[in-house]
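G., the chain you wanted modeled:
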Amino acid sequence: MRQPDNTFRQAVALCNPSGALIEIEPGFYELLAKEWPVWKRGTILSQELLPALTQQQVYQGNAVVVQAQPLGSMVRVHIYALNVLDKLGKQQRNIALRYAAGESYRDIACILKLAESTVRNHVASIFKKCHVHNKKLNSPRLYRNKIRLPT
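Predicted structure as tokens:
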């Protein structure tokens, strides 16, 4: 699936259990290259993905997540790019989304039953993890993901 900025967010491929690619969607190679820049476009997937293929484990790297699903004698491989929110834990994600929606530290603390200082610390940690150095730039970047706030 191509985004408006012409980058791919996800793609699917079909391979055998040994990782030999049979059929790929556009963007599959580009997404693999985000995680393994030195991987040469070829017909065999990275060795790091073999446990995901054979044991149906999810591979989560620094740039992508790969899920494999058996499909007869073949394996369907779904790869998608991680976004900013994927780098956060559940509580930090909740705080980030609330902060991005315009809620104050005090409101977030009250709703989540946390100390206001704890919320401030989480927000500082979120900025660091997301490589954001400006509060005004953080909100749209996080809120673009259009994830509903937990109640």
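The domain at 84-143 is CATH 1.10.10.10 (Arc Repressor Mutant, subunit A).

Shout if anything looks off.
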